[in-house]
From TrEMBL:
InterPro entries: Glyas_Bleomycin-R_OHBP_Dase (IPR029068), Glyoxalase_6 (IPR041581). This is VOC family protein. Residues 8-113, 132-226 form the Glyoxalase-like domain. It holds the Pfam family Glyoxalase_6. Residues 159-181 are annotated as: Disordered. The lineage of its organism: Bacteria, Bacillati, Actinomycetota, Actinomycetes, Micromonosporales.
């Protein structure tokens, strides 16, 4: 059975509100979700599931979206739209840069990238899911999902679906601390015993079993769920 990146799962104090923000930003629609939560998706890119979590956000997320722009005006329009929907500017120490760092209504970071970024050319509006992670975890997810490596230099890695679209990138060391439960994680569909064993052989660690799912961690210790049922 082939594994599929079914959704990014996002902890939210107000799942419906946060889903509405991202649906408007990305042009997504509400989708029926057999696994619970509030799910949105579109014709391309990642589904997003928002699940209730009342614990406050206390640290920067270990992954964030890089949204692309076709022109300076387009970049400015994306920023203005995010602010009108309830987003805000963030200062994370980025200094004087050409991209714009924003937070959604619950403070989840994302970047609006300046036009002309060659690495994200052709990737669509969600150019990348930029992640803090090691080279080993990039190799792990390339093999787990069957996505080819499209970047592997200086311990920085990136993978992309064979059909194209959004890249997933990992910045290499030094890694940020992995303290507590991350607010954004992967839900992977395709659960069966051979796939679970294969992921463990690739470097995953088994954490727990639930009804129709298994929770594991990747080689960097990031938890993810392997789900049974349809893609």
């Amino acid at each position: 059975m082939t594994l599929d990146l079914y959704a990014l799962c996002v902890d939210a104090r107000q799942p419906e509100r946060l889903a509405g923000f991202w649906a408007a930003m990305l042009g997504y629609q509400a989708v029926d979700d057999p696994y619970g939560g509030v799910l949105i998706g579109g014709d391309h890119g990642f589904r997003l599931r928002f699940q209730a979590e009342q614990a406050p956000k206390t640290a920067a997320n270990l992954m964030h979206f890089d949204l692309t722009s076709t022109s300076i005006q387009d970049q400015e329009q994306t920023v203005a739209k995010a602010l009108a929907l309830g987003g805000r500017h963030l200062d994370i120490g980025q200094g004087d840069v050409d991209h714009v760092v924003l937070g959604d209504p619950e403070g989840n970071e994302f970047d609006v990238i300046e036009p002309g970024n060659g690495f994200l050319a052709g990737c669509g509006f969600i150019g990348a899911l930029a992640s803090d992670g090691s080279q080993a975890v990039g190799y792990f997810w390339a093999q787990a999902l069957g996505w080819p490596l499209v970047w592997d230099e200086n311990e920085e890695t990136a993978i992309q679906s064979p059909s194209g679209g959004t890249k997933i990138t990992w910045g290499g060391p030094p890694l940020d601390p992995r303290d507590g439960k991350p607010r954004i994680s992967y839900d992977i569909s395709g659960l069966d015993e051979p796939e679970t064993r294969r992921l463990i052989a690739l470097g995953a660690t088994h954490l727990e079993d639930g009804p129709g799912w298994v929770r594991l961690t990747d080689p960097d210790g990031n938890p993810f769920r392997l789900l049974a049922g349809p893609h």
